[in-house]
Amino acid sequence: MRLRRDNWHTAGQRRARDLGALDTSSWDREWAMRLFQVPAALVGDVWRVAVHDDDGRCHGFVLTCPVVSCDQGVHAWHHGSKCPARRSRSNACALGDRAGMDSCWTWTGSAEAGTLTATPSLHSPLADGGCGFHGFLTNGVLA
Predict the structure, then answer these.
(1) From 3-7, 31-35, 112-116, the region with the lowest mean pLDDT
(2) Nearest 10 degrees: CA dihedral of 78, 82, 88, 90?
(3) For 40, how many CA atoms within 13 A lie in the half-sphere containing its CB?
(4) What does the pLDDT read at residue 89?
(5) Distance from first CA to last CA of the chain, Å, rounded?
(6) Angle CA(34)–CA(17)–CA(4) in degrees, nearest 5?
Protein backbone atom coordinates (compact mmCIF):
# COMPACT_ATOMS: atom_id res chain seq x y z
CA MET A 1 0.00 0.00 0.00
CA ARG A 2 1.36 3.40 -1.00
CA LEU A 3 -0.08 6.65 0.39
CA ARG A 4 -0.18 9.34 -2.29
CA ARG A 5 -0.87 13.05 -2.02
CA ASP A 6 -1.22 14.03 -5.67
CA ASN A 7 -4.44 14.33 -7.69
CA TRP A 8 -6.29 11.03 -7.29
CA HIS A 9 -8.88 11.82 -9.95
CA THR A 10 -6.27 12.45 -12.64
CA ALA A 11 -4.19 9.45 -11.50
CA GLY A 12 -7.30 7.26 -11.87
CA GLN A 13 -8.07 8.61 -15.33
CA ARG A 14 -4.45 8.02 -16.35
CA ARG A 15 -4.67 4.40 -15.15
CA ALA A 16 -7.94 3.84 -17.02
CA ARG A 17 -6.51 5.39 -20.19
CA ASP A 18 -3.26 3.42 -20.00
CA LEU A 19 -5.23 0.16 -19.57
CA GLY A 20 -7.52 0.96 -22.51
CA ALA A 21 -10.64 1.36 -20.37
CA LEU A 22 -11.03 5.11 -21.03
CA ASP A 23 -11.02 6.64 -24.50
CA THR A 24 -9.54 10.14 -24.37
CA SER A 25 -9.30 10.65 -28.16
CA SER A 26 -12.17 13.17 -28.13
CA TRP A 27 -10.73 15.16 -25.21
CA ASP A 28 -9.37 18.65 -25.67
CA ARG A 29 -5.61 18.30 -26.19
CA GLU A 30 -4.74 20.54 -23.24
CA TRP A 31 -6.99 18.54 -20.90
CA ALA A 32 -5.63 15.23 -22.19
CA MET A 33 -2.05 16.43 -21.59
CA ARG A 34 -2.87 16.91 -17.90
CA LEU A 35 -3.02 13.14 -17.58
CA PHE A 36 0.71 12.96 -18.21
CA GLN A 37 1.49 15.36 -15.35
CA VAL A 38 0.42 12.81 -12.76
CA PRO A 39 1.65 9.20 -12.51
CA ALA A 40 -1.00 6.57 -13.20
CA ALA A 41 -2.69 5.04 -10.18
CA LEU A 42 -1.30 1.60 -9.39
CA VAL A 43 -3.01 -1.21 -7.48
CA GLY A 44 -2.18 -0.54 -3.84
CA ASP A 45 -2.22 3.27 -4.13
CA VAL A 46 -4.36 5.11 -1.60
CA TRP A 47 -5.26 8.77 -0.98
CA ARG A 48 -6.82 10.29 2.15
CA VAL A 49 -10.02 12.23 1.58
CA ALA A 50 -11.37 15.01 3.76
CA VAL A 51 -14.82 16.25 2.80
CA HIS A 52 -15.56 19.79 3.91
CA ASP A 53 -12.15 19.92 5.54
CA ASP A 54 -13.20 22.36 8.28
CA ASP A 55 -12.27 19.92 11.01
CA GLY A 56 -9.25 18.33 9.31
CA ARG A 57 -10.65 14.82 9.86
CA CYS A 58 -10.13 12.07 7.34
CA HIS A 59 -13.56 11.01 6.10
CA GLY A 60 -12.39 8.13 3.98
CA PHE A 61 -9.99 7.00 1.30
CA VAL A 62 -9.61 6.72 -2.46
CA LEU A 63 -8.25 3.36 -3.60
CA THR A 64 -7.05 2.13 -6.97
CA CYS A 65 -9.61 -0.21 -8.48
CA PRO A 66 -8.22 -3.68 -9.25
CA VAL A 67 -10.70 -4.10 -12.15
CA VAL A 68 -8.67 -3.59 -15.36
CA SER A 69 -11.75 -2.53 -17.36
CA CYS A 70 -12.75 0.16 -14.82
CA ASP A 71 -13.09 3.46 -16.69
CA GLN A 72 -12.53 5.44 -13.48
CA GLY A 73 -9.31 3.78 -12.35
CA VAL A 74 -9.93 4.69 -8.70
CA HIS A 75 -12.91 4.84 -6.35
CA ALA A 76 -13.57 7.19 -3.46
CA TRP A 77 -15.08 5.64 -0.38
CA HIS A 78 -15.56 8.61 1.86
CA HIS A 79 -19.23 9.23 2.47
CA GLY A 80 -22.58 7.56 2.32
CA SER A 81 -23.14 8.06 -1.41
CA LYS A 82 -21.65 4.59 -2.00
CA CYS A 83 -22.95 3.05 1.19
CA PRO A 84 -25.39 0.18 0.73
CA ALA A 85 -27.26 1.35 3.82
CA ARG A 86 -27.48 5.05 2.99
CA ARG A 87 -30.62 7.00 3.60
CA SER A 88 -32.39 7.98 0.41
CA ARG A 89 -31.35 11.38 -0.96
CA SER A 90 -28.73 11.83 1.74
CA ASN A 91 -24.99 11.33 2.02
CA ALA A 92 -25.29 10.33 5.66
CA CYS A 93 -25.11 6.69 6.61
CA ALA A 94 -28.12 4.83 7.97
CA LEU A 95 -26.17 1.76 9.11
CA GLY A 96 -26.43 0.78 12.77
CA ASP A 97 -23.80 2.48 14.92
CA ARG A 98 -22.61 4.53 11.89
CA ALA A 99 -26.03 6.19 11.48
CA GLY A 100 -25.68 9.88 10.75
CA MET A 101 -21.88 9.68 10.44
CA ASP A 102 -19.93 11.16 7.52
CA SER A 103 -18.65 7.74 6.47
CA CYS A 104 -20.42 4.41 6.42
CA TRP A 105 -17.08 2.67 6.79
CA THR A 106 -14.98 2.09 9.85
CA TRP A 107 -11.32 2.57 8.95
CA THR A 108 -8.68 0.89 11.09
CA GLY A 109 -4.97 0.36 10.67
CA SER A 110 -2.70 2.72 8.81
CA ALA A 111 -2.18 3.60 5.16
CA GLU A 112 1.46 4.42 5.93
CA ALA A 113 2.06 1.02 7.53
CA GLY A 114 0.09 -0.84 4.85
CA THR A 115 -2.42 -2.16 7.38
CA LEU A 116 -5.50 -0.14 6.39
CA THR A 117 -8.76 -2.07 6.81
CA ALA A 118 -12.32 -1.02 5.95
CA THR A 119 -15.57 -2.48 7.22
CA PRO A 120 -18.04 -3.22 5.76
CA SER A 121 -17.06 -4.28 2.21
CA LEU A 122 -16.32 -1.80 -0.58
CA HIS A 123 -18.63 -1.80 -3.59
CA SER A 124 -18.81 0.20 -6.82
CA PRO A 125 -22.29 -0.75 -8.09
CA LEU A 126 -22.96 -0.80 -11.83
CA ALA A 127 -26.40 0.71 -11.15
CA ASP A 128 -24.70 3.81 -9.69
CA GLY A 129 -22.28 4.24 -12.60
CA GLY A 130 -19.51 2.15 -11.06
CA CYS A 131 -17.54 -0.73 -12.53
CA GLY A 132 -19.14 -3.46 -10.43
CA PHE A 133 -16.14 -4.07 -8.15
CA HIS A 134 -17.11 -5.53 -4.78
CA GLY A 135 -14.45 -6.59 -2.35
CA PHE A 136 -12.75 -6.12 0.98
CA LEU A 137 -9.81 -4.04 2.16
CA THR A 138 -8.02 -6.03 4.85
CA ASN A 139 -4.56 -5.21 6.18
CA GLY A 140 -3.76 -3.07 3.14
CA VAL A 141 -4.90 -5.63 0.55
CA LEU A 142 -7.91 -4.86 -1.64
CA ALA A 143 -9.42 -8.04 -3.01
Answers:
(1) 31-35
(2) 20
(3) 15
(4) 44
(5) 13
(6) 65
